[in-house]
Amino acid sequence: MQVTTTSFGIEEALEQLGIKEVNKGTSTGKNWFSEGEEFSSYSPVDGQVIAKVTTTSKEDYEKVMESATSAFKEWRMKPAPLRGEIVRQFGDELRRLKEPLGKLVSYEMGKSYQEGLGEVQEMIDICDFAVGLSRQLHGLTMHSERPGHRMYEQYHPLGVVGIISAFNFPVAVWAWNTALAWICGDVCVWKPSEKTPLCGIACQKIAAKIMADNNLPEGISCLINGDYKVGEMMTNDKRVPLISATGSIRMGKIVAQAVAGRLGKSLLELGGNNAIIVTPDADIKMTVIGAVFGAVGTAGQRCTSTRRLIIHESMYDKVKDAVVDAYKQLRIGNPLDENNHVGPVIDKDAVKNYQHALKKVVEEGGNIIVEGGVLEGEGFESGCYVKPAIAEAKNSFEIVQHETFAPVLYMMKYSGGVENALELQNGVVQGLSSAIMTNNLREAEHFLSQAGSDCGIANVNIGTSGAEIGGAFGGEKETGGGRESGSDAWKIYMRRQTNTINYTTELPLAQGIKFDL
Ligand code: UN1
């Protein structure tokens, strides 16, 4: 099948979203400008250039920061529920544009259209969550040790929040950050991945319309574009108190050091090396669905993708056969065609990393049980379609310790109790997501206990990917320790202030200190 931009309504979607052939990549709202060079966004679906975007120059960045810092002064004075009302309107506009935006996500990033729609749904959901939260940004009150004194804490907006997002969730991760930051009274500057800049342009247009409809100033929602050098303008900038960055561990270490060097705050959501433990009490049918979706969904390019299956020896052959069988049913092809399960990986570099992982696992002594390979021929002209592969491997292999952003699944055996499986599961540097498949209460509770999974996310009878927005999302160890999205993740977007008020005519000192004049 020949894939063209006219099939699957891509052209209409681009038009509805206001994407032009060449797009200015810097924006403070309605105002778009750029002094930087042009770069192209290629679709991994068909290898075509979708459109061009201009990068943000140092001068452009300065204009953005002027606009953002001045907008912050106005925005922070709006009552939080009013800011919530703006986020509500933004969520409604996303509902209206869900299909074209989902299509653009699928076409520019390569995930299935269903997953593209799911990603926009995450944006809508976080908006709803943020609207409710805009009336609940509460601190605590506590009793003062001094008579006639009142003590409480309150949360104030931080300022400009810098958001650096990855290609794999080109719209949702921005929305998790921005919807919360906005209700908290912050303004946002977003640098999307240079692999998915059009998703950034489309979202910024939606946000800019809502801001303008409400006569709000330029600068509440800002967009910058380009490679890591543009990101560095923000990470090194003292005017940006919080950097929220999603990406590789390598990138996260660079960002963390730059931000810590100026004593800024960072919220890091980095790589995962997520495992599903399959115990003797696992339901095989559920295990297969969870493992296969986790490993091949988004072509293995979620930070929550399932990379390791740790199977009890008594179940090993049964689970292995069932998973291998399920892989035979997978249809690889154009992700906009809803008959396909697996689309392309993002680009040729990702294909190289995939090939490297398969080569390396064999070199280290692994055994390929589902053969990989790059697909060629009609419909696969982009060169980015790869076959999901499975290798039997040891946890100690260097390649298994490493996150390869591709559909490669490693299978390994454990014997004895669940604590042995946990040793393998926790025996990696990453700590994002984890799962156990079991109907045994003891195993499940041990897995969730303080001696269990060391990850930020630990699921029972669910795969490792597909977290809901209502929970705090993020992971431990080299995953970076940040939490975004639900629960009380909003607190990182605010500064906490402790207030003590004396309503007497005396001035007693704390700790009983006497200081008489
Ligand atoms: C990511 O891959 O960066 O839990 C985010 C999930 C999605 C988010 C993944 N809700 O799989």
From TrEMBL:
* Gene3D superfamilies, per database record: Aldehyde Dehydrogenase, Chain A, domain 1, Aldehyde Dehydrogenase, Chain A, domain 2
Keywords, comma-separated and alphabetical: NAD, Oxidoreductase
Principal EC category: oxidoreductase
Q: Does the keyword Flavoprotein apply?
A: no
Every copy of the Aldehyde dehydrogenase domain together lies at 35-498
Query: Which residues of this protein are catalytic?
Result: 269
Q: What is its EC number?
A: 1.2.1.3
Gene Ontology MF, one: aldehyde dehydrogenase (NAD+) activity
Q: Which PROSITE patterns match?
A: ALDEHYDE_DEHYDR_GLU (PS00687)
Against PANTHER family, the record matches this protein to: ALPHA-AMINOADIPIC SEMIALDEHYDE DEHYDROGENASE
* Subunit text: Homotetramer.
Family statement: Belongs to the aldehyde dehydrogenase family.
Quote the protein name from its UniProt record.
aldehyde dehydrogenase (NAD(+))
Per the UniProt record, the source organism is Aequorivita lipolytica
